[in-house]
Structure formats: C-alpha cells, structure tokens
Amino acid sequence: MSDSQTASPETVDEERRDFIHIAAVTATVVGAGAVAYPLVDQMNPASDTKAASSLEVDTTKIPLGGEIRVLIGGKPFFLRHRTAEEIAAAAGVPLDRLPDPETDADRLVPMPDGELNPAMLITSGTCTHLGCVPVGPSQGNTGDYGGWYCPCHGSHYDTSGRIRKGPAPKNLAIPNYEYVTPGVVKISL
Amino acid sequence: MKLYRLLSAGLGALALTLTAHAAGGAKHPHPPKEGWSFAGPLGQFDMASVQRGYQVYREVCSSCHSMKLLSYRNLGEPGGPFYDAMYPNANDNPLVKQFAMEDEILSETPDEYGDYQYRPARPSDAFRSPYPNEEAARAANGGAYPPDLSVITKARGHGADGDGANYVYSLLSGYPGFDEILFGEDENGEPYDYFEFDDGEEQGQLIQPIGQYYNPYMAGDVSAYWDGDPRHTPKGGFLAMGPQLMPGRVEYMDGTEATVEQMAIDVAQFLQWAGDPKQVQRKSLALPALIYLVILAGLLWFSYQRIWRKVGH
Amino acid sequence: MSGHESTYTPKTGFEKWLDSRLPIVRLAHDSFVDFPTPKNLNYWYTFGGILAICLAIQIITGIVLAMHYTATVDEAFASVERIMRDVPYGWLLRYVHAVGASMFFLAVYVHMFRGLYYGSYKAPREVLWLLGCVIFLLMMATAFLGYMLPWGQMSLHGANVIIGLFGAIPLIGEGLQTWLMGGPSIGNQTLQRFFSLHYLLPFMIAGVVILHIWALHVPGNNNPTGVEVKDVEKDTVPFHPYYTVKDGFAIVLFLIIFAAFVFYAPNVLGHADNYIEANPLVTPAHIVPEWYLLPFYAILRAITFDIGPISAKLLGVIFMFGSIAVLFALPWLDTSKVKSMRYRPVAKQFFFGFVAAALLLGWCGASNPDDPIIPLGDDKLQVAYTTEAGIDGVAVFAGYEDAAAFRSEKLAEGATASISIKKAPAFRFIHLAQILTAYYFAYFLIILPYLGLRETPKDEPDAIHKSVLGSAAAVPAE
To answer: How far is residue C93's CA from residue C62's CA, in Å, rounded to a whole number?
Structure first.
C-alpha cells in the first residue's frame, strides 16, 4: 500500500485506521465468546441434578448371600453381601484364567480403619458388553460362576463381578464409593 | 425539538414514579436504620445475619410457612449462609446434613409393603413443608393460607433492590405494641379488641376482629372496622398472622441478643437470600460486563470516527 | 431485488461455483456490504439494527430456556425458579429474556416514532410500513403468550382479562374464547398451547423481518430530509463499513442500558405479583399488563359508555384494536407531499403532542381509572338516612363531628343512618385517558389528513448532499 520510504499522512492514517478496526473487531469477538460461554454452560448438569448424583446406602440390612440394587442418576449398582464360600471362590481364582485379570482385593475399597470388607461387594450393575442389567441371587440365577448372569447375550460374572465367560470384555465396574461408617456406604457417580 | 421529546419523556417517567405508592393503602415499608448490606451495586450479604435468619425461619416461621423451592443443600452451596470451602459438594457439608436430618419428611418411594414412611431428610431434599397441601394449611390456620416464603421478597414491592426485605422487616416489626390494644365490650356483652387513634385527622377507634391482627404495613382496607372519619382511615390492613417476634423468642447460636428488631432484620435478610440466591453473583458480574461494554463502545466510536472522517454527514 | 446493479464479483473458484448455483454471497454483499445508504442518517436510524439484535437475543435465550422450562400448571412456576437457582447461568438467561422483551418494545417504539416523524411510511414505502405493523402485532402476541408462561398471578389474571375481551365480540365471542382457552377457563391445556405458540411466533417475526428488509431495499432507505436519493455517488455511502460500524456502536450503547437493567434492576420493569404462583381463586388488587402494553390498556378502559346496541366493553375492544389498525391506514391518511416533519412546522408540534399523548396514556394505563389527578375540592361526608316513615334523605357535611352528630340525631329519632364518603369532583385518570384517546385518533384521522393539504411546509433541500453540512468531499475515502 505504501510505495515510498516516507509514509504520507494518508497511509499513516490508513494504518492507524486499520489498527482501531482490528481492535474493535477483536473486542467484539471476545465479547461474543463471553456471551457464548453461559449459553453453552447452561446445558451442563444443573445443581439439583448434581445433588442427586450420590447416595448413602445402609448395608446392614442386606441378608447374607443376598444383594440390593440401587439407582443413582438412573444407573444401577449392586451391593452384595457375600457368603464365606463366595469370598473364598473369588479369592482363589488364578489371574491367568480371567479374561480381564484383577484380584478380588483390588475390587474392594477399604473401610475407614484401613481394613478391607470382603463381605460387601459393590459393583456397577451395567454389563460391560452392551449395557443390560445382569440377573443375580434375587432373580435366582447367578450363572455358571456363582456371581451374575447377563441374559441378553450370555455373559457370566463370578462372585467378584469379574467376567468369566461370554462376550463382555471387562469386569463389572467398581463405582466411586466410600465407607461413611462401617455400615453405611456412599456411592457417587 | 429534541427538548420537547426529552421533556415529555421525562415528565412521563416522573409521573410514573410519583404514582409508586404502597399497595392497598398501607404504610410505605422502610429498611432498618442501618440499611441493608446487600443493597446497592456492590451489595454483599451479611452472612452471619442470614444464618441467624435461617434459625428464625426454622424455629418461628417453618411451623406454618413452607419454602418448597429451597433444598437443604442450597444452604451449603457457594453464596449460601453455611457454605464451607472444605465441602465443595453441599451434600457433604456436616452442618447442612445436620439441619436436614433434624427434619422428617415423607419418602417419595414406598417401602416393601407399598406404604410411604417418614424418614430423616437428606441435603438434596426440599425444605420440609409444615402441611402436606394448601387445604391442610388453611384448616390449621382458620381458613387463611400462610404463603410459601421461597420468593416472598421478589413478590412484594416494586422490584427495586431491597423492596421485599423492607416489606418483611417492616411488617414483622410493625405490629402495634401489646400495650396499645384496648379491650371493650359491645352491647351484647361480647368482648372485643380495639385501637385508639389520636393523630391529627385520624381520630377514632379501630376494632380488631377476632382472629385478625392489624398491621399498618399490610395491604388492605380497614374502613369497615373504623368508627372515625371515613376519609381518614388508618393505613394498613388485617392479616391472620399475629405478631410472632417476641424478645428472646429465639436463642441465637452465635449469642446475639434476640430483640424483635434483630430477628426481623435477620429473617428479612435470610428471605432476601432465599428469594434470589444469585443476586451477589449477579452484581459481581455487572461491573466487568459494563466496563467491557463501555470499552467496546469507545473502540467502536473511534472506529466510526475514522471511517466517517472524510464524509460530510 | 433492489434498484441498483450488483457490484459483487466472485474471486475464488469456490465463490464462482457457489454464485452460479445459489447466489447467497452475492445477496449478502448487495444487501449489507455494498448497499447504497443515504449518508445523512442520524442515530434514530440505528434502531432497526438494534431490533434485529433484540430478536436474535430473544430467540437464542428463549430456545435455551425452553430446555429447562416445564409448561404444565403444576411445574411451570417451580421450573422457572429452578432455572434461576440450579441451572448454570440460568438466572442470567432468564433475566436477559425478561428484560429483553422490554428492551425490544422500547426499541420498536423509538423505531416507529422515527418512522412517523420522517414520513418513512409514505410512498413508495407503504408495504415496508405495513410489514412493520404486522411485526408489531406479532410482537404483542408473542409478549402476551410469553407472559403467561411463568404462571404467576399476573400471568393468569392478565390472560383472563385479555381472553375475556374476545368474549365481547358478538355471535362468535364465546366460542372463540373457548377455542382459545381449550376449555371453559384458562388451564393446563391453555398454558401448553401458549408455550407452543410462543416458541413459534418469533420465527414468524423473523420471516416478516426478512420481507421488511427486502421491502426496504427496493426503494432504499428514507433519510431525515425526506428527499429521495438523486445521485448515488454524492448522496450515499456503502452500508459497510459506514453503517455497520455506526449501527454496531449504537447497539453497544443500547446493550449498556440493557445490561444495567439485567444486572442491577432486573425486576423493576415487571410486576411483583407475578412472583406469586397463579391462584384462580384469588384476584390481585390491580391487574395491569407489562408497561409496553399500558397505552393500549388505557384506551381499552377509556370507553365507559354504550353507543346504541354496542356495549362499552365491545367498544373498548374496538377502539383498542382500532388504535393499531389506524397505523395500517397511515400511509393513505397522511396527505402531505413532504415526507419529513423537519419541514412541516405545524405537523411537528402535533407530532410531539402525539408522543406526549402516548406516554401519558401509558401513565393512565398504570393507574386506577377512578383515582383523581387534579382534585377539584375536598371529599365530603354524606349521611344517608331512612326515617321510620320510610322517607330517604341525604345530608352532606364537611366536618366529621357534624356528620357524626347528625347521624346520632337521626339514629335517636329511630331512623337508619350511615356515613359514607362523597368524593369530590376531580379530574380523574379516566377523563385524561378519554381526552388522550380522542387526541390519538384525531391525530391520525383528522389532523394528519387536514395538515397534509393545508400546511405550508418549509423549503426542502434539493438533494441530500446539498443538505449535508461540513466536508466538501463527496466521495468517501477508501
């Protein structure tokens, strides 16, 4: 645009003008971004949805050998009160026999005193294949390994919730939970 | 020419503001002497006052007034009276859990027999309502329905900052004193309460019907019970709620003396927070937004000037 | 589409490919970049752009709010408060939408007054004006539908009043009411359909706005002199960057006022009673619409007398809708050859009177019709009594003691007697509203037609560039 060494007032003006226009447009774009932020953020979970995303469950009422199922945010979770045989069966499986190797101890969260509570197994209730909810002791079918059986495509889970046979690739997920007291767990999404 | 337009616009606006009188012939509500800390563009809540106000609500008001749009967790959320940075999730806040646990509410899910049992509330639950429905509330209060207080401060006044809190404070502290109630007997020997007015043109007796309480800040019309000049009836109306705040009615957790004035201020402040929990956040976003807009206006002004400099217009 | 040749030349291969298939870039360029616009437009002319931004703001915030709102009578009020408390930035979106409706009407009234003053409705821009009136009607309908949604006391009872007006229409009125409400009274079915229509109408507004801009671009913009563009080179500048930046600046100033309301006083333009959940059994003491509908509300209430078989209620409805209908007829009512009131000294005064009348009608709409504006005396007391013999009598007193003494006298004689207020004659809001309504209609139906024929206008400039002061350079710098 400027064709000589000495910048004429016109070209100097042009350059200065360009700067102010760039500044104005930039400021407008920044403002538009600031306006867009709440418009996008409003679709994030609202406070009441977030408040409903954890649940405290009293585990003392679960009968031995039985389980209860809870829904948090629409997702199912199993809380199973395991018998001594079930605990032993879970601990005694060699890892190389598991499609998704994991020890039973790794699937338990310690109590406030640091001790593990193998009698209480808490897992997600969603089959890792395509998302059905497996049946268990309450439905009278624990599959070939004494844990859970998924009727949709025939996945068998053992007493630690680990996949043993069938199309599911991974063990039943262990949710985020903690012992508030030895008899009460708080499960969070 | 522009002056005419400005003048007529200004006159119109002035006229509109002049007609802003208190509704229904009531006295105009006013703030306490010190004013409100939350009022004004830089207003902040006096959280200690909001906490005390919650205590007043719990111990005095919640036996009749619901606050269905509030949950216990709101007390512990950022901006709430019991927010603790150690517990970013209000559901974990021990004080909030304590407040919730002390109230029993009806469970939304039935037990194994299909019955609905009472259980201690959780932080995620809404505040316990004193009555299950409006009919029960009316039956327990002589046909009058104690209004829900969730947004009471937005539902009174003219939408200006602090209008609603002024109303709550004035109403609760504005009842005539007990020493002003006089007792008489009508011709059938039936006793009645009345007030004696001796103030300029307001001369006469105002009878207080049974079950109703006179308050100068309540919108209403007392002329049916006034025996003086009908052109000068006392301001205010009757409401079914009698004076609730007595000195020492509440023992504040923080040791503040519970005078009527103090309790009225605190509960008004609490209700102000409850009605619009985001107001402080709103005002704090105001300044950056307006500063940005002013800067943007300046940039656009100079841009405009540059572009138009050479054009006669 | 418009009167001038397209100056757009596609440069890249993609541009040429698109231009031969769907010349949308060409359309945008010709309408908003290279569009020749009179160089003398003042700030009153920025409100069109401001209105476009208002529409965009309302649509965007509205769609986003609709993600969280529940349109049932049990949940509506609570869902709005949920938006205010739990939805991230919900409080901001709600306040922007509510204040935005008021700002939208503020801008549209300025825009309309601008049109009235500069004669923008006159030939060849009649269709432009008519489309604008249609947009105005759609805006009022949208606002009325939207005000129902929070399901507060004013929502319900205000809607009751307006739907009740339809009942005044002879023959079809009752049926029309039932059809609108979907039942014998306003209920859940009404709320749900109002939500659906409230979501629909803004898109119809957007469509009519496109027609409105198209109808503007055919003749081109009017300008403060009212003199048409004679020489495109000398009289006009391209819309971009001259008016894009000027409109941008005005929009930001407008947003500052908008933001001041949203952040510091979001509820002053509304009514506190709408924060009380709707209760069909309890009627609020004063039912008023939002401020931007107050002048029409005042006209509605101004007609208190029957004319022959037509009831006052129906007359009020006719006058209220008539006050908007008369706008549609304006291009043919105003007989003046001169467009801009700059050069019409007598009409100009009547125009300012009209502005004042509109503002004062708003004041009347907000007030109780029976309230006095200028008392013409003091309220007196009257004692009405019926003697034992059955003879009625009335006595008027200035002082209370006298009235009370007289009443005691009559009671002692065995008559029945009671004191009541005899209101002083006064100039009341109803009288003012009637005068202003008369002026409103007279302005359009009598004054403008008459003045157009009789007034001697001042000399108009020959051309826009001759009227413009300052720089001699007629060609804008690159």
So the answer is: 8
| Cβ <8 Å between A51 and B73 | yes
Neighbouring CB atoms inside 10 A of C409's CB total 14
The Cα-based distances of B157 to B168, B169, C73, C191, C394 in angstroms read 10, 12, 25, 27, 41
Nearest CA in chain B to A50: B89
Domain boundary assignment for chain C: 1-32, 33-373+429-465, 380-422
Q: Cα–Cα distance between B71 and B128 in angstroms, integer?
A: 9
Is the sign of the CA dihedral C102, C106, C112, C116 positive or negative? Answer: positive
Q: What are phi and psi of A139, to 5 degrees?
A: -90, 0
Q: Per-domain residue ranges for chain B?
A: 176-242
Domain that residue A177 falls in: 49-188
The three-point CA angle A19-B292-C41 to 5° equals: 65
- pLDDT, tens digit, 9 for 90 and up, residues C261-283: 999 999 999 999 999 999 999 99
Q: Each residue of C405-456: pLDDT tens digit?
A: 999 989 898 888 888 899 999 999 999 999 999 999 999 999 999 999 999 9
Please count the other Cβ atoms lying within 10 Å of the Cβ belonging to residue A181.
Answer: 13
Instruction: Using alpha carbons, list the distances in angstroms from residue B123 to A75, C204, C253.
Output: 20, 45, 44
Beta-strand pair B213-215/B237-239: antiparallel
Segment B292-301, tens digit of pLDDT: 999 999 999 9
CATH number of C33-373+429-465: 1.20.810.10
Q: Closest by alpha carbon to C42, among C262, C342, C442?
A: C342
Residues A64 and A134 in one domain: yes
Q: Do A19 and A56 belong together in one domain? A: no
For C61, the closest chain A residue by CA position comes to A39
- Stated length of chain C: 478
The pTM (predicted TM-score) of the whole model is 0.90
Q: How many domains does chain A have?
A: 2
d(CA C9, CA C30): 11
Clarify whether residues A94 and A10 are in a common domain: no
Q: Are residues A37 and A55 in the same domain?
A: no
Do residue A123 and residue A180 come from a single domain?
yes
Q: Say if CB C160 and CB C206 are below 8 A apart.
A: no
Going by C-alpha positions, the residue among A66, A89, A69, A86 that lies closest to residue A77 is A69
C218-238: burial string, b at 16+ Cβ within 10 Å, e else: ebbbbbbbbbebeeeebbbbb
Beta-carbon contacts of A42 under 8 Å, excluding residues fewer than 6 positions away, are C64, C67, C68, C87, C88, C89, C90, C93
My answer on whether A79 and A105 are in the same domain is: yes
CA distances from C242 to C33, C245, C248, C478 (A): 9, 6, 10, 11
Our answer to whether residue A153 is catalytic in this structure is yes
Contacts of A19 (CB under 8 A, 6+ apart): none
Question: Distance between CA B299 and CA C30 in Å, rounded?
Answer: 27
Contact B268, B172 (CB under 8 A): yes
Residues A130 and A92 in one domain: yes
* Chain B touched by A41 (CB under 8 Å): no
Min Cα–Cα distance to chain C from A24, Å: 9
Does A40 contact chain C (CB < 8 Å)? no
ipTM score of the complex?
0.92
Please report the DSSP string for C195-229 in residue order.
HHHHHHHHHHHHHHHHHHHHHHHTT----TT-PPP
Active-site position among A21, A81, A129, A153: A153
Chain-chain contact of B11 with C474 (C-beta, under 8 angstroms): no
The angle formed by the CA atoms of residues B159, C355 and C249, to the nearest 5 degrees, is 70
Among residues A44, A62, A78, which one ends one of the domains? A44
Cα distance between residue B145 and residue B139, in whole Å? 9
**Residue type for position C67:** M
- Are A74 and A106 found together in one domain? yes
Q: Give residues with Cβ within 8 angstroms of C427, minimum separation 6.
A: C372, C373, C374, C376
